[in-house]
Amino acid sequence: MTTRTSPGGARRVGGKTSKKPVFSASRALLLYLLPLPVLFASLYGVLYGNVRVAFGAAVGFALAMVGAQLVRHGLTLEVESRRRKIVRRLSTVPYKLLGHGVVGLAMAIVALLVVKHSIPTALIVGMASSLGSFLVYGLDPSRSLPDAPAIGVTSEEVIEILNEADGKIAGIESAADQIRNLELKQRLHGIVGGIREITDIVEDDPRDLRRARKFLKVYLDGARRVTEGYAATHPSNQSGELEENFRAVLGTMETVIAEQKERLLENNLTELDVQIEVLQTQLEKEGV
Description:
Number of helices: 10
Strand content: under 5%
Strand order of the largest sheet: 1-2-3
Distance between the termini: 50 Å
């Protein structure tokens, strides 16, 4: 089995991407639940006139919530950065590290003002709380992770374009589900599969974005609009000139997708650009 690094920065094993597992942001829920007794202690202090307990518990609970939010935000960024094969550059702010520190500070204040431990003991409680948070949620990933070597674009730009493409693909799929004509529905799902192959190619090697940018931004947007327009006006199984026009557009879509995949492999731009221009003109003229 061979191991290599893809151009997007993710490690690949045997031709498939191997990603280090990360926590879901929902795992931070524990940090929101554990301090709840501190909130009750604050209410107890208020009811019984114990200012020290009420103040210490309130401050400790508020800081614990801030720490939990910081850790959760750090987890969210980590999950998002690894959702694709391309590694997104991470934030310059170490949210999880700050969160661990704030959680420790919160528990130290609670230990000192609410439980009335000595300062050394409160510090030990705070450090133990920070250590526990670290052991459960870990530190922020290294910011030295490689950026995508796409020509003239950053990894963030590649991911943004791919995310936009995913939204357009979802629009085509949703419109296809509204069309009752089985032939048209199947052809549209085949078209979606072809588009996903193209986005996979770009994700595997972001340098291909230069050759696929027009397809993903211009052609795909037109394909989504024409499909949604047809589905909205003619969802049922009908025949006629409009259906034949749409069938012809589908044929052009299939041709362009095949051309795009071939050109991505051959690194040839000129002929495909002409094909996309032809399709764009056809979409405007057909009015479907």
